[in-house]
Amino acid sequence: MKKRVEKYLKEKADKVDCVTDEEPPKTADDYQCSGNLEQDFTKLCKLMAVKDIPSVKIKQSTSTNRGVMDNQFQTSLSQMTTWSSKPCLRIELEKEDHSCVKEVKISGWKMDEVVLQVLSRILPSLSNLQCLHMWRVGLTDYTFTSMRNTVSLCSNLRKVVLEGNPLAEQSYHLLIAEDSMLTDLSLRNNRIGEEGACLIGLALSTVHSANKNLLSLNLAFNSIGDAGAIHISQGLRLNRSLLCLSLSYNQIGDNGAAHLAEVLGPFALTHEEIVERRKLLLKGEESTMVQPSLVSLADSHERPLSVRSSSSLDRLNKSTKNPTKKKDNPKKEEKPAAGQATKKEEPKVAKKDNKFPRVQAGKIAGKDNNLPVSEQERVDVVETVIPLLDPGIVHTGGKVIHPGNTCLTSLNLSGNKLSEQSLRMFLSSLEGQGEGGLLRLSLNRNQFPSDCDTLLKIQEMMSLRDPLKKNLSGQVDDEHGEPKTTNEA
Fold first, then answer.
1. H-type helices in 217-270, by residue range?
2. DSSP per-residue letters across 51-71
3. Which ranges of 368-452 does DSSP label H, i.e. alpha helix?
4. Nearest 5°: phi and psi at 88?
5. Does an H or E element contain 89, and which?
6. Distance between alpha carbon 392 and the CA centroid of its chain, in Å?
7. Which end of the chain is more exposed for a tag (fewer CB within 10 A), N or C?
């Protein structure tokens, strides 16, 4: 019996060896990425016949690596005519695990299409990748489109730094499309002009769509100008996700600053926005007429302001089908005290949505599935509040006045061409915001005296809004657009 078993096992092992020997050599197409960037990058480069394979270096420490990157930025883009002779990928690991790469940095060497194809195979397989840093890598419009498609396939990638890569078509807006999951995007030193700014503004928001995930956008050291700033301001009108925006060193004057200041405070809706608002109000009224039992306990004039999502309606449908709940709850719903409580709560939720857009609301809705039905309904209201249905909208003087964008908390306009006229416009908008709105406004290195009364008033207002950070408008940016604390005004 033992001999038979040994014979069977030997024959089985021989068959496996034969199959292994007969397998053809792997090609780039059938290569399966393991999630280990160091191994996968080298093997794929060899399979795709890359002559000079870039090395892969592990990031040693945050301070050391940041110093290297800062030194690279000290030379302006126009003075850089040579590429690095020793191209390499710098990666940062999570807990020193080689299969958990959380950051990839490529800087100072021109990537050809083959290397980019290798990365397009590897990066989506890195389930822990959170940041992709590409500084001056010689992207073209074609390779940028390929890179953008790769970014969309990386499930946990939230930050992209794409700097020193000017594109002829200026199609950077593709990174912040409506379906983009990026929360942090830096596009410094890309020679973005009016055309690129227009596309970015449309990507931030239009009357019919808006980006709902981007929290920080850095457009410093470009050529946006007044015309481009106007396009960006149009994108800020109905965007309620962006918290930080840098437009430093972009040749922006008083005309562009006037439009940026306008959207921060109360502004009049355009004809197109009013028409869209009416459509949304009609949709809200139709939903209440079709299913009156599912309407909130708020007053009828407040109902269109927040249209419940389908998930909320489904939950309420289930609750109405349950006969026991019907018997227990009708009296409670008819009590005026309960109705009054609901009226007070809904506007508060709407205000929170204006100050803290989808970031906190999304986390609540995504994780707290065990909340009571009443709490879940309030979360749904936060998610579905639309800027054109803002509770603060009023009708006055034949115009429809919107309270303004109070979600943006940081605006950097350092190193532009703003005069004291711009300061007065920003002061007026800040006063119109009330308690919410901007917490940091950087206006240094412009064309107004550092001791002017308007600037001092703005500084005082900023310090009152955030007592922990004084002299916010007196912060100075370094040559790369990054703030550094100083006493300069």
1. 225-237, 254-264
2. SSPPEEEE---HHHHHHHHHH
3. 373-384, 420-433
4. -155, 160
5. strand 88-94
6. 25
7. N
Buried b / exposed e over 31-59, threshold 16 CB at 10 Å, is eebeebbbebbbbbbebbebeebbebeeb
Contact (Cβ atoms closer than 8 angstroms) between residue 304 and residue 285: yes
Residue 134: other Cβ atoms inside 10 A? 21
Rounded to whole angstroms, how far apart are CA atoms 150 and 288? 43
Distances (CA, A) of 52 to 40, 161, 449: 16, 25, 54
- Using an 8 Å Cβ cutoff, are 437 and 240 in contact? no
Q: What is the pLDDT along the chain (489 residues), one digit of tens a residue?
A: 556 656 666 665 655 454 444 454 457 787 888 889 998 988 898 888 888 888 899 876 454 444 444 444 444 444 455 666 678 899 999 888 888 999 999 998 888 899 999 999 999 999 999 999 999 999 999 999 999 999 999 999 999 999 999 999 999 999 999 999 999 999 999 999 999 999 999 999 999 999 999 999 999 999 999 999 999 999 999 999 999 999 999 999 999 999 999 999 999 999 999 999 999 999 886 665 554 443 333 343 333 333 333 444 344 344 444 444 444 444 444 444 444 443 333 344 334 344 444 443 333 334 444 434 333 433 333 344 689 999 999 999 999 999 999 999 999 999 999 999 999 999 999 998 877 789 999 999 999 998 999 999 999 888 888 755 544 444 434 444 444 433 333
How many whole angstroms separate alpha carbon 423 and alpha carbon 426? 5
Work out the burial of residue 89: count CB atoms within 10 Å of its CB; fewer than 13 is exposed, 13-18 middle, 19 or more buried.
buried
- Residue corresponding to tokens 């080689």: 98
Read off the tokens for 265: 């405070």
Q: Please tell me the distance from the alpha carbon of residue 453 to that of residue 270, in angstroms, as a whole number.
A: 34
Q: How far apart are CA 384 and CA 346, in angstroms?
A: 12
Amino acid at 449: P
Number of helices (H), then strands (E), in the chain: 17, 15
Cβ atoms 318, 300 nearer than 8 A? no
